[in-house]
Amino acid sequence: MSEVREIIRVFIVENFLFGNEDGLGDETSFLDEGIIDSTGILELVNFCEEEFSITVEDDELVPENLDSINNVVAYLQRKAA
Amino acid sequence: MAYDLEINICRRCILPETIPGINFDDKGVCSHCRRGKSADANVTEKKAIYRDRLDELIRSTKDKAPVYDAIMAYSGGKDSSYTLKLLKERYDIRLLALTLDNHFVSPVAWENIRKVTDNLEVDRLCFTPPWPIMKKVFSLTAKEDIFSKATLLRASAICTACIGLVKSLVLKTALEMSIPMVAFGWSPGQAPIQSAIMKTNPSLIRQNQSALKRAFPSDINGRMDRYFIPDFYYETLKGRFPHNIHPLAFFDYDEEQMRQQLNNLDWQSPTDTDTNSSNCLLNAFANHCHIQRHGYHPYAWEIANMVRQGVMDRDEGIEKIYTKQDRKMVDYAKERLGL
């Protein structure tokens, strides 16, 4: 899962932080910190679906699954189980 | 047309070198085009799947809600007018069109709103916040970037504030009137196809709304509170959270054909708006402020996506993005805002 964590981190840093990862911890809330907005969350969903060949269901679109690196990694772990 | 092409732009799309974090390979192709190649695969197949999904969603919701099947965020511009027409003519659903009067709607767009809704026999609502509030919001966002860098990559601060209000108002109205679908006229470049049919989630919306509210200083925030979703709605109306749909992501998108079809409803292209808007007299100034502060056009991201997807010619994209903002349009908005 450390590889998954790195893939998510690189996606966030490249697409939303323009290469500057200062202040982005594994627990940092994307929405609260203004790193990702509502459209950005959908782009993250899009990325996860393409990269990890999963389908994100409507009822899985919750902050608990998508609002930090840790949350995304844990969600992907659950999907893979 | 006067283009400002003194900067390097991607040889495949139209993104300029001034986009934060962008880089180019030795063929002059940008990092976003290189990354986007695999995502663009199977797009025709995906579009067909989404059309089927919308057919199914409408089959399962049509005529079941008390009054309306869908509420449309309706600006009177080309994209939302075409979406309204598509939904009415293809599905014959009960539609309510809601327009936010931001005090900068072009007179031609008002006429278009009236003609299109009358010709389609669609009910319309106009919501007008008082001018002092809108003036304060637009004056602030003209001068300051109160939103995150990632948000501003996709739209100007002025547009982001205005669209934030629109999204909130249509959702609030949908919840209050038990309307199961909220429709937007997003172009195929504005949001990914995967988000084109999506059930809204109360906790995600709540977090989004509080992030949006926090972006505004407290004096403005207090005056705008009534336009956002009240906290108790998330619990008491949680069973009413609607599906968001933006059909133009998966139906054919050809601007010329869309205009021709809209002409049948007496819709006319305004001549008093900039190249990227067909309804708003503030947009040229919003673009101007963004270009001054960030060094790139706020529509560059959207238009680049459309060029990449093949729904817009690269030359047309270049014209939209690199035509200088009309000085008269910029000055008009600036003066009205007292800046």
Write a concise keyword list for the protein shown above.
heterodimer, A: 81 residues, mainly alpha, 4 helices, 0% strand, globular, B: 339 residues, alpha/beta, 6-stranded mixed beta sheet, 15 helices
Write the layout of secondary structure elements.
The complex is a heterodimer of chains A (81) and B (339).
Chain A: H1 2-16, H2 38-52, H3 63-66, H4 69-80
Helix pairs in contact in A: 1-2, 1-4
Chain B: H1 31-39, H2 43-61, E1 70-73, H3 78-91, E2 95-100, H4 107-120, E3 123-127, H5 131-143, H6 149-154, H7 157-176, E4 181-183, E5 197-199, H8 202-215, H9 218-224, H10 233-236, E6 243-245, H11 255-263, H12 283-294, H13 300-309, H14 314-322, H15 327-336
Parallel strand pairs in B: 1-2, 1-4, 2-3, 4-6
Antiparallel strand pairs in B: 5-6
Overview of this protein structure:
The complex is a heterodimer of chains A (81) and B (339). With 81 residues, chain A is an all-alpha fold. Chain A has helices spanning 2-16, 38-52, 63-66, 69-80. The radius of gyration of chain A is 12 Å and the shape is globular. Chain A starts with a helix and ends with a helix. The model of chain A has no long low-confidence stretch (mean pLDDT 88). Chain B is an alpha/beta fold and 339 residues long. In chain B, strands 3-2-1-4-6-5 form a six-stranded mixed beta sheet, sandwiched between helices. In chain B, strand 2, helix 4 and strand 3 form a beta-alpha-beta unit. In chain B, helix 5 packs across helix 7 (157-176), helix 12 (283-294) packs across helix 15 (327-336) and helix 13 (300-309) packs antiparallel against helix 14. The longest helix of chain B is centred in the middle third of the chain and has 20 residues, at 157-176. Chain B is globular. The model of chain B has no long low-confidence stretch (mean pLDDT 93). Classes of the chains: A mainly alpha (81), B alpha/beta (339). Chains A and B meet through helix 1, helix 2 and helix 3 of A and helix 1, helix 6 and helix 8 of B.
